[in-house]
Amino acid sequence: MIDELHEEKLKDLELKANKIRQLIIETLVEAKSGHSAGPLGMTDIFTAFYFHILNHDPKNPNWEDRDRLILSNGHICPVRYATMALAGYFPIEELKTLRKLNSRLQGHPHRTALPGVETTSGPLGEGISQAIGMALAAKLDNKKYHIYCLASDGEQQEGNTWEAVMFAAKYKINNLTLVIDRNNIQIDGFTENIMPLEPFRAKYEAFNWEVLEVEGSNIKAFIDAVREARAIFEKPTVIIAHTVPGKGVDFMENRFEWHGMPPDTQEVKGAPPKGEQAKKALEELRILEEKIESEHQ
Amino acid sequence: MLNPDLKLNPKLFDPDVEVKPTRHGYGDGLVVLGEQNPNVVALTADLAESTQAHKFAQKFPERFFQCGVAEQNMAAIAAGLGVSGKIPFISSYAIFSPGKNWETIRTTIIYNQSNVKIAGHHTGIMTGPDGATHQATEDIAITRCWPDIKVVVACDAIEAKKATMDAAKIDGPFYLRFSRDKTPIITTEDTPFETGKIPIFWTTKNPVCAILATGYMMYYSLLAAKELEQEGIPVLVANVSTIKPLDQNSILSIAEQTGSIVTVEDHQVGGGMGSAIAEFLAKTRPSPIEFIGVQDTFAESGKPTELIEKYGMGKSSIMEAVKRVIGRK
After folding, report:
1. What is the mean pLDDT of residues A121-129?
2. CB–CB of B237/B213 below 8 Å?
3. B275-287 pLDDT per residue, tens
4. B129 in reach of chain A (CB within 8 A)
């Protein structure tokens, strides 16, 4: 099961999350293409998964009894790639190849290109269904590994999502934990302006799921939520994780313009000039790193 | 004459020839697979009895998943099962699967390389009274364009059972096409079937034309061949049961032997089996070709046999097409 989180470990996780944010910025600048806001917002959750929650082996990505982590909103793969690299799935150097020709790090994750990504994703609304399929296979084979699925709030607008949600309730898929990145943004703007999702929690409850809510950037709270979810057996469970898109970089936080844009490619209102965005972002993250060190003294 | 090596149904030309829907072959094949292989699972989107998956459901309830009216979900769940060591067969009407869930299949099954077998039912205008909304006439076009997919269309219920079973033995995504209506039994249990091969069902000396048929339209093609022979026009008839991958050697040899082609399918003439043949021959051995199928239109409600005649796909239409194409050699 998932270990208790001690102070030392928490500090270590926060430092790793900060490192991953730095890697994300560097990777996107090199690629000159890709998504910023989602990856930065989900960094704490990815850190919690890869360095504390998941039962996995970076040197053996196809280990039969591993926990599965499905990323439904595949466009935020820069955070997945950066986390996997730091965890030892592949060399950190390889992050430079994101979105480039012949790369294993495809713009949207591709299962057969990179061991460990579990499925190909990108088109929204398909991940929960696939996670359910894997959960069913585990039950058929009497396997004890757990399936986690990460999805975005925007993709809840896809009808397929609710088909999957209905199915999971019917078949009581309790070896699946769904985590929703509730960051309130999507490509064209704020979710509540584009296609309102509220009342959001009530929707999942109406579909017969157990619902937990947590602040997505609080690593300790998130791990506690996952432990609570793992103890629920009568219904499938969703953790609505309230995240800040662009977290860690002041000029990106809560700005939907940064959804699909890497730093240093365009002038953006409220941001440093084009050539200085990454530099400023990395500076802020370095300051945050010192703050984490001192907070845990 | 009927190719004696293939042990086809000797009563094929009887007016009261045995008839059975090809979807029954799917249902029967699935049950045998269920018995042979514990990793075979089945899913449907509220069409268990119609697609004949109910027989599997009754025998193996723990391996059957009823998805309700939700074809995208069905496909993606199957994708998850398929990368986890299972061999999922998903069934619905073709218009909904692969129709409605086309992109879901593309992303999660084809590109993702999940071992899922997609059974599209109620295909062609011979679906009949339900009308055009339910008559899938573009499904071959939208599936054969996927890289690495295998597309198989059985000519009768017996072949359908073999095709279904073969699909489980061969790794990778399959599209299997089935029909609603009772159609004549053309083969026998002893007729060899091999995914990827195009056998000759009707042979003759010095054929002047080749009829390439897929699915139950093979029956009308054989009727046409028999009558053409009586009129002194010898043709051969080949069974294009696998549209992708195309048995290129057989097609080439047939084109060389005959010099002219008529393709026959219950599908739009644009993008289906005929197009696949034409694409290949245009590149390798350009030959005059005629396409029997749905001529770029939607059909309507009606009796299957009435629809075939009205939409120019019956025996006489095939015979006229042969006479036209010979004239262009």
Report:
1. 97
2. yes
3. 999 999 999 999 9
4. no
**Alpha carbon distances (Å) from A253 to A269, A271, A281, B251, B315:** 13, 11, 11, 61, 69
Compare CB distances from A160 to B82, B104, B112 and report the shortest one's residue. B104
* Residue B9 and residue B202 in contact, taking contact as beta carbons nearer than 8 Å: no
> At B66, which helix (H) or strand (E)?
strand B64-66
Short-list B271, B254, B274, B280, CA closest to B321: B274
Which chain A residues are Cβ-neighbours of B67 within 8 angstroms?
A: 163, 167
Strand order in the sheet with A147-152: A68-71, A147-152, A176-182, A237-242, A210-215
Among A123, A132, A137, select the one facing B103 at the smallest CB separation: A123
> Which of B62, B80, B85 is facing A129, going by the closest CB pair?
B80
Buried b (16+ CB within 10 A) or exposed e, A203-239: bbeebebbbbebebbebbebbbbbeebbeeeebbbbb
Check B108 against A138: CB less than 8 A apart. no
Average pLDDT of every residue of chain A = 96
pLDDT confidence of residue B164: 98
Q: What is the pLDDT of residue A295?
A: 87
Q: Give the ipTM of the model, two decimals please.
A: 0.96
Q: With contact defined as beta carbons under 8 Å apart, do B186 and B218 qualify?
A: yes
Residues of B in contact with A167 (CB under 8 A): 67-68, 70, 73, 77
Q: Which CATH number fits domain B19-184: 3.10.20.30, 3.40.50.970, 2.40.50.140, 3.40.50.720?
A: 3.40.50.970
Q: Find the mean pLDDT for residues B209-213.
A: 98
pLDDT in tens, B33-69: 999 999 999 999 999 999 999 999 999 999 999 999 9
| Residue pLDDT, tens place only, B148-197 | 999 999 999 999 999 999 999 999 999 999 999 999 999 999 999 999 99
The residue assigned the tokens 């051969």 is: B236
Mean pLDDT, range B299-326, rounded to an integer: 98
Q: Give the strand pairing for A185-186 and A176-182.
A: unpaired
**In the block, which residue shows the tokens 């009530």?**
A202
Task: Give A69's strand partners.
Answer: A148
Judge whether B78 is closer than 8 Å to chain A, CB to CB. yes
CATH of B4-16+193-326, one of 3.30.1330.60, 3.10.310.50, 3.30.1360.120, 3.40.50.920: 3.40.50.920
Of the pLDDT bands very low, low, confident and very high (cuts 50, 70, 90), residue A138 is: very high
- The set of residues, in sequence order, having a beta carbon less than 8 Å from that of B31 and lying 6+ positions away, is B55, B56, B59
Q: What is the pLDDT of residue B91?
A: 98
- For the segment A254-275, the average pLDDT, to the nearest whole number, is 92
Query: What's residue A1's pLDDT?
Result: 80
CB distance from B42 to chain A under 8 Å? Answer: no
Q: Cis bond leading into B98, ω under 30°?
A: yes
Mind listing the pLDDT tens digit for each residue in A71-102?
Answer: 999 999 999 999 999 999 999 999 999 999 99
Do the domains B19-184 and B4-16+193-326 match in fold?
Answer: yes
Domains and CATH numbers, chain A: 7-295 (3.40.50.970)
Residue of A nearest to B85 (CA): A137
Buried/exposed code over A132-171 (b: 16+ C-beta within 10 A; e: otherwise): bbbbbbbebeeeebbbbbbbbbbbbbbebbbbbbbbbbeb
